[in-house]
Amino acid sequence: MAIDVTQEQRETGKENYARATEGLTRRGFMKSMVVAGAAIVPASAAYYFGYRSLNGNPVKAALIGGGDEGGVLVGEHNPEFLQFVAVCDIRPTNMKRIFDGDPKSPLRKGFKKVYGGEAASIKKYTDYRQMLLDNKDIEAIVIALPLHLHAKVAVDAMKIGKERGKPIHVLTEKLMGWNITQCKQMIRAADETRSCLAVGHQRHYSMLYAHAVEIVNADVLGQIKHIRALWHRNNTWPFEVDPAAPPVVAGTNPYYRDGWFPPVYQEDYDALNDPALLKKYGFDSVEQLVRWRLYNSTGGGLMAELGSHQLDACSIFLGKKHPLAVTAVGGKFFYGPGRNDREADDHIFVTYEFPGKNYANDKHDIVVVTYSSISTNQFEAYGECVMGTHGTMIVEAEQTVMLYPERDPRKKGGGNVKSMTAGVTNTGRDKPTLEASSTWGGPAATPTGSLAAGGTATAAVSRGYREEMEDFAYCIRMWNEGYDQDRRKPRCHGQVAMADAIVALTANLAMKKQSRIVFNESWFDAASQEVPDGETTPRMPVEL
Ligand SMILES: NC(=O)c1ccc[n+]([C@@H]2O[C@H](COP(=O)([O-])OP(=O)(O)OC[C@H]3O[C@@H](n4cnc5c(N)ncnc54)[C@H](O)[C@@H]3O)[C@@H](O)[C@H]2O)c1
Questions:
Q1: What is the CB-side half-sphere exposure of residue 288 using CA atoms within 13 A?
Q2: What is the pLDDT of residue 415?
Q3: How far does the centroid of ligand 1 lie from the alpha carbon of residue 68, in Å?
Q4: Interval between CA 19 and ligand 1 midpoint (Å)
């Protein structure tokens, strides 16, 4: 993520982060870390996010969409909170994989590994309505379908719940809806049917991000004027046929190593190549079903798929403020005829203007957030770099945080700030600030254990999927005790996720219109009919 940081400087950045975290915890500024005896340890996710065990009463759920992400959710879910009793998918190859798991991807364990012999009792469907009508014990659905289906399936399920007199709660994958009208329809339907609506922007449940947000909230970085976020990949190397993969429809192999252009398997093609069937499921062709991200009517491009996650993180860093304006450039600069052709852009460059903390009193207080996602170079991978007047925080690949102080010109001593150890100190205003080692004055000891690794310990950091599903189930149990508008909501509930969708989809509009778009606050109000100009009619409209 940081272009010119050496391995040694990375380690320094991680240690600085650990030291700052420790300092903030001891001063009572950080609740995601707790003092346990003499050590500082991360608070448990359940404690931090405020949920508890369901005491042997898991929520009975159905998965709708058992593809790549459905596989991750199955692998990551905790059956003590969410117990899958049914699954709906239309592609035979994915139905098999959701049970068997994917040996190439340890995260996609499959039902059989998670449930053992009991996996055989998970019911299989190709029609989600039928599944919900047949199985009255289903309390919740988890949607991991292509984008254009999220709103329709969510609202259909909530309506079935209302009709049967027992709500069906919904956790849908991001992006919430294909357009903003659909997001508003989902929020209204959830209110009307008394269903809990959650959206899978998992950073809301990542302890790593919780720590990073507390660093920002404690003001140790000083005033933030710029965040640089990016997700860069290189798909241009030749695609290699996997000899163990099922047979592919002739002529549909990708040419480049492109995750958005997967092969079309003969078995799926044979089962689904019927125009009436495809129309019912929301597609024009089997190829569109498999490569839905590449079509404007089924996907939302790089902003929906990747950018929405990171703008979600940026807006959390900035106090969940809505942006003021956006400008953007995007295009199909690499793919084209004969080169894994598509409708979706392959390179996007977006600039947002966000209000700073003092914007209400000072209209100069603007934070510029830049975002790029490209498909031809992965020298930098993905992450966010938050730049403040007193320090810089880099959050890399949802796994690592690094912290660097800014040079204080009043202090003596040279050297590269990227190599300086730093910690938090009080500025005299009873506010902690990040300072280079000569002044922070803490003990020379380097933090140990998980802190020394930048909060990452030795194992991979949870990205938040598990916690997101646990909290969703906990909310449902709370709601089932008696519905009340003020009841506990998931952290990424409809209103929060709609803001993420507006931020992502308005960038797409700015690219299309080639102009700067000023955000209108009424877009963010679910009760208002106002949506950005230029929204088009969805392929799968919500039936209210
Ligand atoms: N939170 C994250 O980090 C993250 C990561 C990847 C994907 N996602 C999201 O997850 C969703 C799914 O993405 P994916 O990569 O798994 O796509 P995918 O194409 O691998 O899986 C989609 C599945 O839905 C099934 N399906 C399509 N139409 C259907 C219908 N009408 N009825 C039943 N099943 C149907 C397909 O057969 C397929 O198995 C998308 O919204 C995507 O943005 C989220």
A1: 18
A2: 75
A3: 6
A4: 40
**Ligand 1 centroid from CA 173, angstroms:** 8
Token output for 526: 């679910």
pLDDT at 454 over 50: no
Which segment of 79-83, 277-281, 304-308, 451-455 scores lowest on mean pLDDT?
A: 451-455
Is the CA virtual torsion 107, 111, 114, 117 positive or negative? negative
pLDDT digits (tens, 9 = 90+) for 326-369: 999 999 999 999 999 999 999 999 999 999 999 999 999 999 99
CA of 290 to the centre of ligand 1 (A): 9
- 1 close to ligand 1 (CB < 6 Angstrom): no
Compute the Cα dihedral for 102, 469, 397, 239 and give only its sign.
positive
Nearest to 458 by CA among 468, 446, 448: 448
pTM for this structure?
0.95
328 alpha carbon to ligand 1 midpoint, in Å?
27
CA distance 522 to 455: 39
Helix, strand, or coil (residue 53): coil
Which of ligand 1's atoms lies nearest the C-alpha of 172? 41
- From the CB of 66, is ligand 1 less than 6 Å away? yes
> Which of 63, 64, 69 for a ligand 1 pocket mutation test, highest count of atoms within 8 Å of Cβ?
69
Q: What was the pLDDT predicted at 342?
A: 97
Half-sphere exposure of 499 (CA within 13 A, CB side): 20
Contact assessment for residue 421 and residue 437, using Cβ atoms and an 8 Å cutoff: yes
Between the CA of residue 107 and those of 3, 103, 111, what are the distances in Å?
Answer: 29, 9, 12
In angstroms, what is the span from residue 287 Cα to ligand 1's centroid?
14
User: Is the beta carbon of 67 within 6 A of some atom in ligand 1?
Assistant: yes
Minimal-distance CA residue to ligand 1 atom 18: 67
Residue 323 in contact with ligand 1 by CB distance below 6 A: no
Across the range 385-413, mean pLDDT stands at 90
DSSP 115-133: HGGGGGGSEEES-HHHHHH
pLDDT higher than threshold 50 for residue 414: yes
pLDDT band at 446 (very low <50, low <70, confident <90, very high): very low
Ligand 1: does its nearest atom lie under 6 Å from the Cβ of 149?
Answer: yes
> What does the pLDDT read at residue 436?
76
CA dihedral (408, 410, 415, 421) positive or negative: negative
Strand partners, 331: 347
